[in-house]
Write a structure and sequence with these properties.
Blueprint: H1 2-13, E1 35-36, E2 42-44, H2 46-57, H3 59-66, H4 86-101, H5 104-119, H6 135-152, H7 157-171, H8 179-183, H9 185-199, H10 203-214, H11 218-223, H12 242-248, H13 251-259, H14 262-279, E3 301-302, H15 303-320, H16 323-336, E4 351-352, H17 384-388, H18 392-399, E5 401-403, E6 409-411, E7 417-422, E8 428-435, E9 442-449, E10 453-461, E11 469-472, E12 475-476, E13 484-492, E14 496-501, E15 506-511, E16 515-520, E17 523-527, E18 531-539, E19 542-549, E20 555-558, E21 565-568, E22 583-591, E23 597-598, E24 601-602, E25 617-623
Parallel strand pairs: 6-10
Antiparallel strand pairs: 1-5, 2-7, 3-4, 5-6, 7-8, 8-9, 9-14, 10-13, 11-12, 11-14, 15-16, 16-17, 17-25, 18-19, 20-22, 21-22, 22-25, 23-24
Helix pairs in contact: 4-5, 4-6, 4-18, 6-9, 7-10, 9-10, 9-13, 12-15, 13-14, 13-15, 15-16, 15-18
This protein binds zinc ion.
Length: 639
């Protein structure tokens, strides 16, 4: 009877493979705060599973069928077509998407690509298309291979990587890193560390040192930061490029594992001080369209910088273990990421704006980008984001849970999910997370070890979560502090319940020209503006769209008096669309007639406080990710 019931549970949760151990840092690397779990240890559930399904049913699942850059002629499939970054970029997201959804059709697609690389290594150790002589796209392919190995256990991956690194170590002095690879070397160090932790071969760390001597010194760049406002065209270079900067969030910390230098581990704090002060926008993203663009909420951020920023924060959370990185990760993931896609994930932008009142073909005040950069479409401006965006949601899911160094489990970020891993004494355990976070404030965990076992459960308590409450089997625990991990050490039994409540009161934050944004939990809220989607052209199953406003947007907010009213709606099929927004906030405001359109964007933001004699209106705000047209940084009206 017992056995039958257990089998039923296993089937219903869909765990095919054995639980896997996290691989820890091997000496002389210093220990991480947390360790990423092998891919497929965490599975999406609830709205997150539906979101990954939306992605798979959208561009991600079909792109290779009609977009030539990742079509059958790709050099990464042995063809004569695109042989640089686009194939590996696509796989870097398709591999985790396919395996987290356990989607046979998508898994078959990834196998075709990865098999080509695995079976076409040259006798000298080189990999990839013969006509590629750039180290950079190979750095992406290495990330693909590490994920694929974790998901499948494919025995060819590790020997191939060893041979490739030997080949590169022999060549690098004479053929050093060039262009993009100079700025993105930290990504290869990640793969070197991954392999070193599995094989212990010291030559891998020597190669990492060689890369660091050829790579850009991001620590020095931010120690004496020269770019304190939007850059002009002549100032732009690869060091002011927003995607390189988003990738560089992790570089010093990753390198710090090899260097052992404390100042490398801590360099992220100086980086964030400078970038936040001069380039942070209210959606949680640094500006870059596609170079440093300052604090004005009409400037944009390139989509590649969103997904790369998330990937960086996932690794910062693991290496350094500060809750602030999880807070930032959630802010990017639940705002900037969905805010730059159509609700069905068939169209994306190149640049998104916090104050985005018109998406149209029009030259805008971008630092370098073209006039179609804020269209929703297949490849507005340039196709890098089209191939690179796929990693955003699946890597977030894979990183929600990590291992603690003492064989426990840590919640790095929150969302409906299920994690299965090995804890102390080799006991396997499953934790289910039932929640509609970030739209709701309650998170219910059920802990199910295969047999009773003691291990720590570390829970990130967000900085904004004043009066956060945690109960274990209905009993409230003490000592829960916002901005810290709360550790529960106990002997866990099947069915133990932990409930977290993170009160989501509406808060205001201050931005450019003394403007205000409204936030609730990890969500940023924006004015809901009527959207008219105008199709520009059809491209296979995809299309390019302009989005025009059908309602006014030039409002200031009245912050005194009545409190903002929060209205919760069901979390439906497409939460990141204006029609499907699961939360609304009602506030009062007045129009500001002199605030109008300029060069296709909301014109200069009036400096707050602002006077207006227009009638008071009740305004509806929805999550930033749901509002494809929006005002996020509002002028504050005089009392
Ligand atoms: Zn891009």
């Amino acid at each position: 009877m017992k056995t039958a019931a257990f089998a039923l549970i296993v089937c219903s949760t869909g765990w095919g493979a054995e639980a896997q151990l996290a691989v820890k840092n091997r000496s002389p690397l210093p220990p991480n705060a947390f360790y990423p779990l092998p891919l497929t240890s965490v599975k999406p559930r609830g709205w997150l599973e539906r979101q990954l399904r939306i992605q798979a049913d959208g561009l991600s699942g079909r792109l290779d069928e009609f977009w030539p850059s990742v079509g059958p002629d790709s050099g990464w499939l042995g063809g004569t077509g695109e042989s640089w970054e686009r194939g590996p970029y696509y796989l870097d997201g398709l591999v985790p998407l396919a395996f987290l959804l356990e989607d046979p059709k998508l898994i078959a697609k990834t196998r075709k690509w990865v098999n080509w690389t695995l079976s076409n290594q040259q006798p000298d150790g080189s990999i990839g298309p013969a006509k590629n002589d750039d180290w950079w796209p190979l750095m992406i392919m290495l990330k693909v291979l590490t994920q694929y190995q974790e998901a499948t256990g494919d025995a060819r991956v590790i020997p191939l990587m060893e041979r490739y690194f030997q080949y590169q170590a022999g060549l690098l002095a004479g053929r050093p890193l060039q262009k993009w690879a100079v700025y993105r070397w930290g990504d290869e160090v990640l793969s070197l560390v991954w392999l070193y932790n599995r094989t212990g071969k010291a030559g891998l760390l020597d190669l990492a040192r060689q890369l660091s001597t050829q790579g850009f010194d991001w620590k020095a760049h931010f120690a004496d930061f020269q770019f304190r406002e939007k850059v002009s065209k002549p100032q732009t270079g690869l060091k002011t490029h927003v995607v390189n900067n988003a990738m560089a969030l992790k570089t010093s910390a990753v390198w710090g594992l090899v260097s052992g230098d404390r100042s490398d581990r801590e360099a992220i704090h100086q980086l964030l001080r400078e970038m936040d002060r001069y380039h942070l926008l209210p959606n949680g993203l640094h500006s870059g369209d596609e170079h440093y663009a300052g604090l004005n909420p009409s400037q944009g951020t390139e989509l590649c910088a969103v997904v790369e920023g998330m990937f960086s924060l996932e690794h910062l959370s693991a290496i350094l273990g500060e809750t602030a990185f999880g807070d930032r990760l959630e802010k990017m993931a639940f705002n900037g990421l969905p805010g730059t896609f159509s609700g069905d994930m068939w169209a994306h932008q190149y640049d998104q704006q916090p104050n985005q009142v018109l998406c149209s073909r029009h030259p805008r005040a971008w630092t370098t980008n073209g006039g179609d950069s804020n269209l929703f479409g297949l490849e507005p401006n340039f196709g890098c984001c089209t191939s690179n965006f796929h990693q955003g949601w699946p890597k977030l899911v894979a990183s929600l849970w990590m291992a603690t160094p003492d064989d426990g489990v840590a919640a790095i970020a929150y969302g409906p999910s299920e994690v299965r891993t090995v804890v102390r004494n080799g006991v396997s355990a499953t934790i289910t997370e039932d929640t509609e976070y970030p739209f709701r404030e309650k998170i219910r965990l059920v802990v199910n070890p295969d047999s009773s076992v003691a291990f720590p459960l570390a829970l990130r308590v967000p900085k904004w979560a004043d009066r956060a409450r945690v109960t274990v089997n209905g009993k409230r625990v003490s000592g829960v502090r916002p901005g810290a991990y709360y550790r529960i050490e106990r002997t866990w039994k099947k069915g133990d319940r932990v409930e977290l409540t993170f009160p989501m009161r509406v808060r205001t934050s201050r931005w450019y020209h003394n403007s205000v944004a409204l936030e609730r939990g990890p969500l940023v809220f924006s004015l809901k503006i009527g959207e008219e989607w105008r199709k520009l052209r059809q491209i296979g199953p995809a299309a390019d769209w302009e989005v025009h406003p059908t309602t006014p947007w030039n409002y200031g907010l009245i912050l005194g008096g009545a409190k903002p009213r929060v209205i919760e709606k069901p979390v439906r099929e497409m939460p990141f669309s204006a029609a499907g927004a699961p939360v609304e906030i009602r506030v009062r405001g007045r129009r500001i007639p002199e605030w109008g359109l300029e060069n296709g964007s909301a014109g200069p933001l009036p400096v707050s406080p602002v006077a207006s004699r227009e009638p008071i209106e009740t305004l509806t705000l929805i999550p930033y990710g749901s509002a494809k047209l929006r005002i996020t940084a509002f002028p504050k009206l005089e009392d």
